Amino acid sequence: MSLTITKLQKKIADQAVLNNITFSLSLGQVVGLVGPNGIGKTTIFRTVTHQYRADGGTIELDEQDLTDHPEQRENLFYLDNQHLFFRKYRLDKIAGDYQLLYATFDQARFMALIKKFGLQGSQRFQSLSKGYQALVMVALALASGAPYVFLDEPFDGLDLLIRERIVNLVVDAVADGKRTFLIASHNLVELDGLSDRVLFVKAGRISQDLTLEDVRQQAIKLQLVFKTKAIPDVIREQGRILTIRGRVIEAVFPHFTPEVKAAIAAEEPVLNESLPLSLSDLFKVEFRAKNAEVK
């Protein structure tokens, strides 16, 4: 079962928010959706799940257009954090309502999950801490049986232990290859360790569709020190400078070829050290103006 979004468009207040968004998902993946605030990540979720009506493009599940086959939307699960209808409901009442919404909803599993969290069905959602509310929403997603789950900022404002529980739930859920999570988050550290792929949203489009393992095979992050403060041309032209502290330069080289390696060596750096390349580094490369640290 594959989910394919093609040239998705959406305007809000006559402003184009989504401009030909195109990507596809297959089962058994955790995919990060990354971009600055206000770039349209939540709008993607709302449009794909038909909370917003698209102004153009198609959303297909196994080549069936969801506009023509609305019953297929049961295979998508998304909770809009800003518009939760059940804030005042008891947890067992929420489960009962979702059993009506999703034919595959497993109420027993939901109750077992919240019990594992130390919660009871008689508790009201709004009485829970932010962390436990997040766990309840993930439990609803898991119990829904929907193969495609969209999570919008699931780690926002949560303590380390709650974040770890959510990560473990997601990892366990995709282990059998029957479910995929698309996660929008500013917590790039969590996404770095969790995601198989990352989609960068920029100017209303998917600007990059990266498999992190593949990126790390062709890109490198270096810490460099040269004999003078002058920055060699190869660094400016082939690298993306992240920081400059005195004569210490940290830079990412997206395409670290033997030629680039040789050109750097020819400048006889005093220090030439490889550093771990993180998702945060790739975010800076994608969204910061090139060599913005260079004065």
From TrEMBL:
PROSITE patterns reported in the protein's UniProt record: ABC_TRANSPORTER_2 (PS50893)
One Pfam assignment: ABC_tran
SUPFAM superfamilies in UniProt: P-loop containing nucleoside triphosphate hydrolases
Coiled coil segments of this chain: none
Residue stretches making up the ABC transporter domain: 3-228
Protein origin, superkingdom: Bacteria
GO molecular function, a single term: ATP hydrolysis activity
Keywords for this protein: ATP-binding, Nucleotide-binding
SMART domains: AAA
Alphabetical list of Gene3D superfamilies matching this protein: P-loop containing nucleotide triphosphate hydrolases
PANTHER family on file: ABC TRANSPORTER ATP-BINDING PROTEIN YTRB (PTHR43158:SF10), SKFA PEPTIDE EXPORT ATP-BINDING PROTEIN SKFE (PTHR43158)
Protein name: ABC transporter-like protein
Organism of origin: Lacticaseibacillus paracasei subsp. paracasei Lpp14
